[in-house]
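Interim report, section 4.2 (structural modelling).
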Amino acid sequence: MLIHDNSKLVMIGDSITDCGRKRPVGEGDGGNLGTGYVSMVSALIGATCPEKRIRVVNMGISGDTVRDLAARWQTDVLDLKPDWLSVMIGINDVWRQFSRPNVIESHVYPDEYEETLENLVKTTLPTLKGLVLMTPYIIESNKNDAMRQMMDRYGAIVKKIADKYGAVFVDIQAAFDRLLTRYYSAALALDRIHPNTIGQMLIAKEFLKAVGFKWE
Amino acid sequence: MLIHDNSKLVMIGDSITDCGRKRPVGEGDGGNLGTGYVSMVSALIGATCPEKRIRVVNMGISGDTVRDLAARWQTDVLDLKPDWLSVMIGINDVWRQFSRPNVIESHVYPDEYEETLENLVKTTLPTLKGLVLMTPYIIESNKNDAMRQMMDRYGAIVKKIADKYGAVFVDIQAAFDRLLTRYYSAALALDRIHPNTIGQMLIAKEFLKAVGFKWE
Amino acid sequence: MLIHDNSKLVMIGDSITDCGRKRPVGEGDGGNLGTGYVSMVSALIGATCPEKRIRVVNMGISGDTVRDLAARWQTDVLDLKPDWLSVMIGINDVWRQFSRPNVIESHVYPDEYEETLENLVKTTLPTLKGLVLMTPYIIESNKNDAMRQMMDRYGAIVKKIADKYGAVFVDIQAAFDRLLTRYYSAALALDRIHPNTIGQMLIAKEFLKAVGFKWE
Amino acid sequence: MLIHDNSKLVMIGDSITDCGRKRPVGEGDGGNLGTGYVSMVSALIGATCPEKRIRVVNMGISGDTVRDLAARWQTDVLDLKPDWLSVMIGINDVWRQFSRPNVIESHVYPDEYEETLENLVKTTLPTLKGLVLMTPYIIESNKNDAMRQMMDRYGAIVKKIADKYGAVFVDIQAAFDRLLTRYYSAALALDRIHPNTIGQMLIAKEFLKAVGFKWE
Amino acid sequence: MLIHDNSKLVMIGDSITDCGRKRPVGEGDGGNLGTGYVSMVSALIGATCPEKRIRVVNMGISGDTVRDLAARWQTDVLDLKPDWLSVMIGINDVWRQFSRPNVIESHVYPDEYEETLENLVKTTLPTLKGLVLMTPYIIESNKNDAMRQMMDRYGAIVKKIADKYGAVFVDIQAAFDRLLTRYYSAALALDRIHPNTIGQMLIAKEFLKAVGFKWE
Amino acid sequence: MLIHDNSKLVMIGDSITDCGRKRPVGEGDGGNLGTGYVSMVSALIGATCPEKRIRVVNMGISGDTVRDLAARWQTDVLDLKPDWLSVMIGINDVWRQFSRPNVIESHVYPDEYEETLENLVKTTLPTLKGLVLMTPYIIESNKNDAMRQMMDRYGAIVKKIADKYGAVFVDIQAAFDRLLTRYYSAALALDRIHPNTIGQMLIAKEFLKAVGFKWE
Amino acid sequence: MLIHDNSKLVMIGDSITDCGRKRPVGEGDGGNLGTGYVSMVSALIGATCPEKRIRVVNMGISGDTVRDLAARWQTDVLDLKPDWLSVMIGINDVWRQFSRPNVIESHVYPDEYEETLENLVKTTLPTLKGLVLMTPYIIESNKNDAMRQMMDRYGAIVKKIADKYGAVFVDIQAAFDRLLTRYYSAALALDRIHPNTIGQMLIAKEFLKAVGFKWE
Amino acid sequence: MLIHDNSKLVMIGDSITDCGRKRPVGEGDGGNLGTGYVSMVSALIGATCPEKRIRVVNMGISGDTVRDLAARWQTDVLDLKPDWLSVMIGINDVWRQFSRPNVIESHVYPDEYEETLENLVKTTLPTLKGLVLMTPYIIESNKNDAMRQMMDRYGAIVKKIADKYGAVFVDIQAAFDRLLTRYYSAALALDRIHPNTIGQMLIAKEFLKAVGFKWE
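Predicted structure of the assembly:
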């Protein structure tokens, strides 16, 4: 596995990451890591390769956009001195353009998204042993859907930045697309955004596959 | 307005109708009618034509299919002796085929839906002064969406029965389709099913238009 | 409709306006706008003319008098930069003279009411595209009732100010008087002040009629 | 005082009597008697003439009409074997005709009220040492008010029955009328029905005066 | 009655006075005055002589000694500008000497009690139209009981100060002694301190008798 | 210790025994035995002589008189097949005569108390290896106090029955009397009945002393 | 994977299985399957091989022994008509012998355990497509520990029955033993019984490995 | 008993001491001292030798290590001016090395433990009349258990410091070891750390024995 022994892995993001984690820092047993993919990643690593002694920390906050991430980056990422960092952000940046179309000050458009995310990556990378960037997604198989199209633009930005800076790239949208050939979206997430445990496990598996985790 | 003076109007359905109504019978002020279209219909009639003295009763139950409606029809419709009755059912009949694809005993397929609904209509019609049948819907503009296609089949069954028995027919799906030319679905309902107050008001307006309500 | 496309409409007032809105700013879906006339105005506009993209913001606070409004005017009106503003205030100014006759420091008498309200209108008008002033009211048909007589004085002040400054004037008291020819007050509000959904819908309809809203 | 030493006094009625009393039988300290006139009657007797050793029992139930009283008369009055009984009923019989005008099955009209109340009095009187009948009331000074007029009809029925059967008669409406020369109704009860502690104390005082209680 | 028309009467003390009053200032309807003698005093005055328009304010705080009263005297008495003031304090000053014998810093001995109370009286009297001092008490008939003996010393101090400064003196201990010839203490207060409604009404009656209140 | 190895000891009584034990049967860790003397007895035996493997079961119910005990004797004592049984009852039998003097049906007078208790003892004794009878008590040092005098009569009945049937007798009243030479009653129990942990520990110690428990 | 397409897999057991599942039947999204290994098994299957359309049902009940399982076998297993069944039981059978040594009626000794479990297996096997038996365990590496020794006896019984009837056998104890070479027990379960998410994931993985699940 | 008459005894520690004590200072009746050994010590002293008038204060805080104790020593020990002080700390210092092996900043290793504890003892001793040091413990009989071995090292440090400074030493670990010859650990504490009432009583007894307390 790419993640080094004794590493501290901080995973930051929005409600998909948060899932009820402990405040101010989500680390440790039970509900401290929330009930989503972060907890599953921690459990799969802990049950499979305990000798690596990897610490997993959940710093997701529900509702966050990349703009919110930037505002809390010092305390919620840098101060924690992670060895590895994973970032999954952008869903709210897109979603509010569609769910609250009139509230324009809540929208984070592609330019701001790219500039902010790139800036965070660029300045943080020197302090890390490894960085993972995961795409935002919508659990919607219709690629002509307006919000899907917009989400794909943000996913492409993530890929572009990951490529430019040599980060591990995880295409969560592509993973859900594969699952959507078997399930209708409502079997994974009623609102096409917040997945049930099947969808959360999918994210955990994609993350682990990308960092070279071995199942047995 | 088609609804006669001094009528008792019972509105039955699923969670779209229920919206937290009082148990066992939802009638009266404040939250007794719930917070959805039934309360809005009652308020619009009461504020506009109080001289008609129309009683509105909400008998929706969250999660119901037409199969559940049939099971409680005697106590929840016939025993209340409505003059007018409105029925909006079918969303769960369809939804569970997509959200719980493996739990097949929870699915109500088109044949059962049609037979059950028609039977309820046929046996109840003689006791009524008026009957309104509203289509189920999904707030999804893509007509190729699998669940949308299935929902349209159920909507067509409602229209067929309404035509056959001379009931007032309200095409809620068509109304949402018009709204979807202006809104993305997430601005009306996060899960494409349970609308916010804009969507509930749309249902109330469509119902009232169909029964000839005059706004002023 | 008088309200311009893309406008932000702020509605301020007391408990009739508040109805459990979100703090500090009431905007958005579901309960954010509360359960009263503001939510109904938003829903009727949203369901009928979504292309106008009007934002509705609820800034009512239960128990407020015009004195309280003045104290929070900067943060709760000016800072929000509304295009249109509606104000319905005065019920508590009057009510406490009758419900707490001994607590004279809680009373806002007509002179203070007029001076304060006029001052708010005069200084705010230049920043607005449109202003709506609605009368306070009591749901009491007896015009010789002591509190009704006093409330009518405050309503007359509102009309006077609206006329002087060219604001849209909405006579809510007159609207309730029409309804009271059909209902006894207890069918609309147990305390003659806080209306049920019928009375709240009446306020919403009067507001919308005054700004030229078209029902269909 | 008319009430005999060592008597058990049962006081029955609606929400004015109930005031949160203990179920199934309200007797004893603290909240067991509720927070209304029954508790005050008990406290005034207990503090003033403890040597009389009078037991006070509260059997009020919120929302009751005389029809509801008749349905629970056996368990809630006769089975308790009171020496003295007080009855204050009729407010809901009248109120619902005005607050829920369309729900006619909830109305108890004068004929039913008179026949039911008289029947309860006639059959119970032989088992009692004393009976007190108190009028229903509305805290509304306008005698032309529609609900006030109706309430006065019910109060007249109470007086007629009290006279015919020699019960102690307490005119609560008249007592509130005297207070209304000093207070506006909202200073005693926001809904003109449920009094604050001043109004509850008034009822307690009227009851005690009628049974010859001496303050010192 | 000694209390002047339009007076504001502030009643301060410990838990006997407090009884769940509203914070920071207990004034107005329902529970605002708590459920003890202050509420009863207000209700008896309001129901009997509303024309006097007397405001009653409850400033009791559970657990207070005279030391605590002095610490909050500026905000809780002087700032409220009472016309009349009543003080009932001392129970906790004594009680803690017996219930927490080892926690000596919580004890307020007679010298401190007298000096503190006298100082409050002396400095406040010039700002008042009238002052009422009520004794602390224990609902215990055995005058040889150790706590009763101590309480009597504090009661004597109250009387001494009342006499010296011409305050209205109310001997609550004596009143309970009269009641104890008819009741065992447990029928009035399980802990001999916190009375049920009978005992609270007794305090209200004693206060009112002392200020010349007429029952009818 | 008198209690045999592997015995099941059932302790029955009123609120002094109950102290929040688990229903329907109080046995086991933590709160299952409540927070009073039963838990302390169990903990002292368990910590000191675990090799005896004694099971302790709490069957107290708050508010019980001996009349209530008799009514539940079959299920709450006999069905549990205790080896040893302890009974402490009588406080409520006496207390209600003083706290609710008018509610005479709640009083259990000495004759009924003696006859009922003796009958329970007589019929149960043959099924037991050992029986402990503890006196009721009042934490009141004044032997002329009316309730103390009555309680002493009940204590004497317990002693008489214990002597007659050879039960272990524990004089809890005498133990509290010794403690009252050092403490005022309020330092042990605010209501002279329900002791704090010091008083509960006293009961536990007296019980254990009577059955020959060794501290070390 | 051994589990057939479209199978219904019922997993029954004690608190390790239960983990807050829905009553009466735990099936579906979110918390319905609880937060333990059953949910993880369902999520891993659903995310990896959705085309198999396997239904997972959680029927664990906290605190159950094999005696309790037998008592609810008809309703909780047979009536659900599972295709595959997994059973993990025995922890409480053993644990109570150590945690409640005196409460012998709560102990299920090896003979009863074996006879009961074998009987359930024997009678149910003909109705199943597949059966999985998992060992009980204690997260304790010291094989001389008294409870560990006893638990190993029960695990051997499970193995014996699995072998005799050809069930899939899963040695959970052995899996934990491997993990205990890396972790101290407290890092997996504070009480050595209820694992955190790492331990629950271990159980899920062992189960899946035994039925031939492929990770990718 | 070593503890002097009229002494104030402060007992500080972690969750074993805390047990839900009152904040900020745990002193007095009922739950103020929590439900653990502190409350039992207070009750045993109070019931046995009330004439000593010893005040017991609980300053335990759940989760504390010696590092946490040092941080709050000024406010939680020195400011309270104890005569006698007892300290039981170290369990969390050890436990987290095993339960959270990766979170190394939470570990307090032996050197820091010894230095910190000795420093607290050295600087505080001059202000005290007596000091009691109790060992941390684990309720685990296997002396080869990794955490047991580490705990024994910390216990030895406590003994070393107690000997060096002449403090009363209480070997709680040894006491539990004696009990473990009769009980399996699960009968005293599910997690081998937090004892039930038997284990808490054991601590209380050991403490009292060490300070020369006499049971009778």
